[in-house]
């Protein structure tokens, strides 16, 4: 089969004979060769960062909309569970 990114033939692994290459997500939904896989890995790290930013943003907004009593309660609950507080997140 061919790489979905560079279109080159995916060389089967010499030991396992695996010829399906690597998962090309998030660049596309296909498979990719080992050469392209490092791009995929970088794209994946990047998207992970984006996801984490979204979560941080969501937590911030979520906490900002709560009343003080609920904020206090949530802070204590989060401390109990070792979760980050919005106050501790990088600005
Ligand atoms: Zn490729």
Can you walk me through this structure?
The protein has one domain. Helices cover 49% and strands 4% of the residues. It is built from two helices and two strands. The radius of gyration is 21 Å and the shape is elongated. The mean pLDDT is 86. The protein binds zinc ion (ZN).
Please give a handful of descriptors for the protein shown:
91 residues, mainly alpha, two-stranded antiparallel sheet, 49% helix, elongated, binds zinc ion
Give the distance, in angstroms, between the N- and C-terminal Cα atoms. Answer: 46 Å
What integer is the average pLDDT? 86
Largest sheet: 2 strands, antiparallel
- How is the largest sheet built, in terms of strand order? 1-2
Low-confidence stretches: none
Number of domains: 1
Strand proportion = under 5%
Relative helix content? 40-55%
How would you spell out the order of helices and strands?
EEHH
Q: List the ligand species.
A: zinc ion
Strand element count: 2
Per the principal axes of the C-alpha atoms, what is the gross shape?
elongated
- Counting helices, strands and paired strands, the structural category is mainly alpha
Separate helix tally = 2
Walk me through the topology.
Layout: E1 22-23, E2 31-32, H1 34-64, H2 68-81
Antiparallel strand pairs: 1-2
Bound molecules: zinc ion.
Characterize this entry briefly.
This protein has helices spanning 34-64, 68-81, and strands at 22-23, 31-32. It has 91 residues and is mostly helical. A two-stranded antiparallel ribbon has the order 1-2.
